[in-house]
Amino acid sequence: MRTVRRPAKSLPDDTTEDGAPGERVDEEKGGTVYEGVVQNLIDELGRLPGVGPKSAQRIAFHLLAADPADVTRLTEALREVKDKVRFCSICGNVAEAEQCRICRDARRDTHVICVVEEPKDVVAIEKTREFRGRYHVLGGAISPIEGVGPDDLRIRELMQRLADGEVTELILATDPNLEGEATATYLARLVKPMGLTVTRLASGLPVGGDLEYADEVTLGRAFEGRRLLDV
Ligand code: ZN
Known about the structure:
By secondary structure, the chain is α/β, with parallel strands linked by helices. It is about 35% helix and about 10% strand. Strands 4-3-5-6-7 form a 5-stranded mixed sheet. A two-stranded antiparallel ribbon has the order 1-2.
């Protein structure tokens, strides 16, 4: 993003900015605490995944000093993504229509479904060009520690898709970590009575990591060498 640095305004701690009524000062988090709108921005940024309090503060002050046109583009992009993008009614991938581009594509193989945790995994697998079937996005993985159970994932929707018998292979491409493995095992057991071929991506993926961190070649190979999952 293009940024035009403005002379830094003196916002830090000895704050004299006009405080809006109802502003709050959060003393819980330690470190420098700002008042009102600046702190609201830092709090909101801090709720984003992977953004800690320090990064949130850095991004907030970057935005304060940024060219208004840059900030406008960012807010527009945020608004547009919430207005226009939704989740595919079939697979749960992000979509700009009722159904995503992949589900609408008649050339895709309707006999194979690749189950992933998040839409970003769809992107990672599409990059390998190894897979021509369709996807099912669970929206996460089973994690007792984080209180995520099977009912919190799009598993019921997956079972509905499998009900008519058109799908013959289910590829379980959940992340190669504890939660991903637990989810794959759970699903494999669940669909076992249906008699489909259930496969899991081959080893060689970075264990404990995220599918998206695997490079295209490794992920492509893992796809090609997928193995039958016997539970
Ligand atoms: Zn879809």
